[in-house]
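Tutorial handout. Part one gives the primary structure; part two gives the three-dimensional structure as tokens.
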Amino acid sequence: MAAQATSRVGATLARLRSLTLGIVVGTAVVAVATFLTGWWVFRRSHGAWIVLGGVLCLIPVLAAAGGRWLILRAAHAVPRLAGDVATLLRTSRQAAGPLIDHDSGAPLAQHAKSLGELRSLLTQRRAELPALFAGVRALTAVPGLVAVAVLGTLAAGVVGTILLLVGLLR
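Part two.
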């Protein structure tokens, strides 16, 4: 069971690794384009744009980069994951239930909710089960970070488009 749970979590982390790379790149492109457009439009108030535009453009990039970092850290720990899962199965089979049922075809957000209780337990045992803690933390935190990155990118894209139109109509 431990090997099967490890294989499923590893496969999910691999899918998330490629997803987060695309989100980081897309977010960075939109953020840079929006920031440069604002810099062009607000020629006389660069100081205000650095603060406002910097916050608007930096939040989605940081969320995407944070999600990517969590996934890479968890993927790095996958070889040690089987031992941690086996230890958890020996000590608390009920707590390991979400790992055993993981990747049943349900959406990732649903798995993140079911893994929330396991994450609470692992937070207390993170020194004993570091690889499992890293994997479950990534699986529970990354969907929220990706949502912040995508919504922030959409907001920055809308603002960038409006700024471009304002700049062109001057």
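Part three, for discussion. Residues 2-169 form one domain. DSSP finds seven helices and no strands in the chain.
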